[in-house]
Design brief:
The chain has about 240 residues and is mainly alpha-helical. The protein has one domain (about 10-35, about 45-240). About 55% of the residues lie in helices and about 5% in strands. It has helices spanning about 10-25, 30-40, 45-55, 70-85, 90-100, 110-130, 140-155, 160-170, 185-200, 210-220, 235-240, and strands at about 60-65, 70, 135-140, 175. The strands form two sheets. The protein has a two-stranded antiparallel sheet. Strands 3-4 form a two-stranded antiparallel sheet. Strand 1 (about 60-65) and strand 2 (about 70) form a beta hairpin. Helix 8 runs antiparallel to helix 9.
Amino acid sequence: MTVLTPPVPEATADLARAALDAYCAGHATRPAALEELRSSYDPPAGPLLAWAHEIATPAGFPLLGTSLSAPVYPALVWNGARLDALRPAPDWAPLLAALASADADTGLDRVGAALAAADVVRRQAAALLASDTLPAAVPTLSTLAAATAAALAGPEQGEGLERILDLAAGLTVLTPGPFTAPVAGLCTGHGAASGWLAATLPAEAATPMPGSVAHTLSVAAGYAVPGEGAPASVAALLASLR
């Protein structure tokens, strides 16, 4: 059964605040995925290589290991599938989105801080879904994580992050069934590409519904997220204690 709940802007605000706190903490270490990205691995072959040649253009974002480039969105989809085949991991999507949105002279330490913030968002969103009740669907939380990383690594350094997260929520993929995890390479690529799009799309181009994160997670969970009686913000908590 699809659960349609009122939007909860406080839940999005909490995620954005936690992400900014993690980003500003300055304690991020360079993630293992970043080091692994620089390590040597066999170039792609077969259908993956054919796909690379199909989308290649003279300029754009690199298609890793091919000496080819493509427009950013299809390049991120392809790279997500490429890296997922190398090693499935939740940090590929935000890493790719951060690299695509960052200026060329952005320091890798700042990228690492953006990835730390993205991990906080992914974990907190997953915690909202944690329940004894099996979810109706599994969402690509990588979209929220990638949007966070792209927004913080980009030139605006997280400005408008609440709006970006709500926009990203509408771009998640929901895989029906509680026992099906969205771990396929295309889901990794979609997370990277959709998160990058949410972070870089001009504000005037799309206006998401405030509170869309909780609304989308509720559809996936099959119950209201955050749960009834669970305050989503400090203000809500204090109000409940009056």
